[in-house]
Write a structure and sequence with these properties.
The chain has helices spanning 6-17, 22-44, 66-80, 217-228, 246-256, 277-290, 321-332; strands at 53-57, 63-65, 85-90, 97-98, 108-116, 127-135, 157-163, 167-172, 177-183, 188-193, 204-206, 239-240, 259-262, 294-296, 316-319. The chain is of the alpha+beta class. The protein binds 2,5-anhydro-1,6-di-O-phosphono-D-mannitol (AHM) and magnesium ion. The site of 2,5-anhydro-1,6-di-O-phosphono-D-mannitol (AHM) has 13 residues, from β5.
Length: 333
Amino acid sequence: MKRISLTRHLVEEQRLNNTIPAELRLLIEVVARACKTISHAVGKGALGEVLGSAESENVQGEVQKKLDILSNEILLEANEWGGHLAAMASEEMETIHPIPNRYPMGEYLLLFDPLDGSSNIDVNVSIGTIFSVLKARDGMEAPTEQDFMQPGSKQVAAGYAVYGPQTMLVLTTGHGVNCFTLDREMGSWVLTQRNMQIPEDTQEFAINASNARHWHPPVTRYVNEMQEGATGPLGKDFNMRWIASMVADVHRILNRGGIFMYPADARDPGKPGKLRLMYEANPMSMIVEQAGGAATDGKQRMLDVQPTTLHQRVPVFLGSKNEVERVTRYHQE
Ligand code: AHM
Ligand code: MG
């Protein structure tokens, strides 16, 4: 196999499509390097004394794990000094993190969920890092939260790393989706899948069914129809998978299709769904669209949702196009 490194891929994509200027390439490489460090810490587990709760809560009232905090610090430190960023925002931080004055300020904004799938950290199931890159407004002097309030369609890059049996990095800069596998001996990211494509049709769905009694009618209808199988209105049998790590569920869908749903439900109208728009739904939706799939909040294209706050939650429906369109249609009917 001819080995193409992440760096070479980025340089060649810049030559071909002119979408990865040097600063953005630096940004992506720095994030990818930080993901290697996180992968290493995750891989050590109990031996690194990194498992367990940190006995603190994030701004969303969720208990933080030690690895949540460590991963956040790794990403912050890695990205501060390069001169490529104006500010960062994270699931684990209440407010934005402007680049300290001692470093030059760049033109990009970086958002991340440093370690997604918190409930799986201590049980050795795949977890991951999700990131999203926006451009800061021209002539910006001091970044504010308002500068981050851009719809997902404005993302210039998005990606995730999945820490599973293999550590992989999935990346888009708006010209398709490519996957890199971490060569642990060499410490390098090697291109292993080019131009990933999600099949338009699927027979596999992912949803946390323990919430079924709280779902809104369009979701109940859709899941019931899938469960009715070949003799039901959809005319085919469906299989179900739920890893409870969005990265791992999305990674499966990128490889063999499927539909992932985290709907809003009737419990708390102030909490529309569980997943966060800015650093979970948007980057994953860009990746899914770039791979030929679709992503909505049940009503509209996810990438068109205008954000109003950094940590806002959204219902998420993403994956194989025809199924995402179906459940979105059910919301309109
Ligand atoms: P987290 O950011 O606190 O890890 O929560 C996000 C995770 C997603 O990875 C996953 O899809 C979902 O929450 C799992 O939810 P549930 O615990 O309801 O299964
Ligand atoms: Mg998360």
